[in-house]
Amino acid sequence: MNVEQSQSTPLELCIRSAAETDLQAIMTFDERSNKDANPRYWQEMFARYGADESKQLFLVCESGHEIVGFIIGEVRDWEFGSNPCGWVFALGVRPDIRLSGVATQLYGAMCEFFRNAGVTKMRTMLARQDIDSLSFFRSQGMMAGPYLQLEKDI
Amino acid sequence: MKLQQSTLLGLYAVLELAKADGEQLSAADIADKFDVSINHLAKVLRILVKAGQLQAARGAGGGYRYSGSAKRTTLMDVIELFEPVSIEGFEHRDAPYHSDVEAGLAVALTEISEMMQATLRSITIRTMLKIMEGTTRQR
């Protein structure tokens, strides 16, 4: 059985732009950080995506003054011959607070940012094994797109 | 991959009853809608009841209603009640292959199989209902 985002526990959530002081909280629950904690990675992410909000956006979700989720996205122009589109390349929710609508609200805020930036398509890329995330993005209406990701050990 | 008739009937029944949002439908209603044999469908419905996906009400005016969790049940959960999911004629195995042809094909077919499984495991019944709403609006 699978788990999809739901609104089973209503929470007061506040979505806002990320601040540098949020990074420590994000690192405590981001899965990539947990595997290989890397404060410098997050400093670089913040410097790149938290500063200029014309084409990039780094949002956090607060509940009771605690950071419970984040999303990072970017408008990319003419990549792979595609029209400009919005890429979501990081989304995380604190594990104990999942299924409370956090990801749905962050996703909605990112959609609005992309629409305001003039793009009409959004994309993301996920591991085939990451069924929970796949299921979440599909529940928001996302489907497999026209591109296939290929790779090789070199 | 070619789904067996029972599997397709299982998916039809689950989706039709989940769409009915708690309303009861008879086996005859479902069989008529999809133009399928009621006898075959009855066997499929029994499997779905046993798996907890449907609830059956007996007697006059009896029928079936969806009782699964649309948010948690995936297409794969329903399909696996009827058949294992694999590419027809190919089963992954740990034993060595007899030839480079067989081993090479296994690499390509494993890729297809993994993509298929990820798709079926990540689409819930609720997501399917949204997809169905979208296709209805387009028509």
**Biggest interface, chains and residue tallies:** A-B, 14 and 19 residues
CATH fold description of chain A: Aminopeptidase
How many separate domains of chain B?
Answer: 1
CATH architecture level-2 label of chain A: 3-Layer(aba) Sandwich
What structural class should be given to the helix and strand makeup of chain B?
Answer: mainly alpha
Fraction in helix of chain A:
25-40%
- Helix/strand-derived category of chain A reads alpha+beta
Which spans of chain B have pLDDT < 50 for at least 5 consecutive residues? none
**Number of DSSP E strands of chain A:** 5
Query: What is the class of chain A in the CATH system?
Result: Alpha Beta
Based on CA inertia axes, which overall geometry of chain A fits? globular
How many structural domains can be distinguished in the coordinates of chain A? 1
Oligomer: heterodimer
* Mean of all residue-level pLDDT scores of chain A: 87
Structural overview:
The complex is a heterodimer of chains A (154) and B (139). By secondary structure, chain A is α+β, with helices and mostly antiparallel strands. Chain A has one domain (14-139): Aminopeptidase (3-Layer(aba) Sandwich). Helix content of chain A is 31%, strand content 23%. Chain A contains five helices and five strands. Chain A has helices at residues 23-29, 31-35, 39-49, 102-116, 131-139; strands at residues 14-17, 56-63, 66-76, 85-93, 122-124. Chain A has a five-stranded mixed β-sheet, sandwiched between helices. In chain A, a hairpin with a 2-residue loop joins strand 2 (56-63) and strand 3. The termini of chain A are far apart. Chain B is mainly alpha-helical and 139 residues long. Chain B has one domain (5-138): Arc Repressor Mutant, subunit A (Orthogonal Bundle), CATH 1.10.10. Chain B contains six helices and two strands. Chain B has helices at residues 5-19, 27-34, 38-50, 75-79, 100-122, 125-138, and strands at residues 54-57, 63-66. Chain B has a two-stranded antiparallel sheet with strand order 1-2. The model of chain B has no long low-confidence stretch (mean pLDDT 91). The A-B interface holds A 1-4, 6, 128-129, 131, 134-135, 138-139, 141, 144 and B 69, 71-74, 77, 114-115, 117-119, 121-124, 126-127, 130, 134.
